[in-house]
Give the backbone structure.
Amino acid sequence: MLFDDGQYNVLDQNIYPQDPLKFKDSVKYSERLEENKKRTQLQDAVLNAVGTMEGIRVVVSALDFSFMGGSMGSVVGEKITRAAEKALEEGLPLIIVSCSGGARMQEGVLSLMQLMKTSSAIAKLDEAGIPFISVLTDPTTGGVTASFAMLGDINIAEPGALIGFAGPRVIEQTIREKLPKGFQRSEFLLSHGMLDDVVERKNLRSYLIKALRLFLNRAQ
């Protein structure tokens, strides 16, 4: 949808999730991984690609909620980091499209480590003056929100997307108060300065192209 003529080259394909903790809840983590791989035909919850948007070469990472809720484990953290490193190495803008329930509990602290890892990679882009645009879709929550998803030079969201760290039910149970209407939705966050814009999906490509041109023209 974003790339010119729908053409792009997929990056970092041969990275596979492991089960270092031998985690098991109702089923083994290794079994969950295999089931998700078969159902989605993905290796994990993110795809990296490079292509052009109206002639502007760009790196895009897109999280897929259909693979374990788009959760961020070691592979997702590694691939987001590699996308940032690719952008840094070639001086290309980076766009990350987030859709995630947060850190992947089955990988424990290895998953939480990805918050710092991805944030550090994004910080290097900032130091180099390379644009990073973050697109938040429904939902973008937990450790993904607490790391790279809110670090864009521009943070934009789709209408009505749930965006936050803890979920609204958890917050209400913790503070024992009723939350405001629309709390943690895109429009609420925009009105409170947490987002730069809310953009419908049908307008997303043209919006991103305009933003990329603005960044690149200022860099010249």
Summary: Residues 142 and 153 are 20 Å apart (CA to CA). The first strand starts at residue 9 and ends at 11.
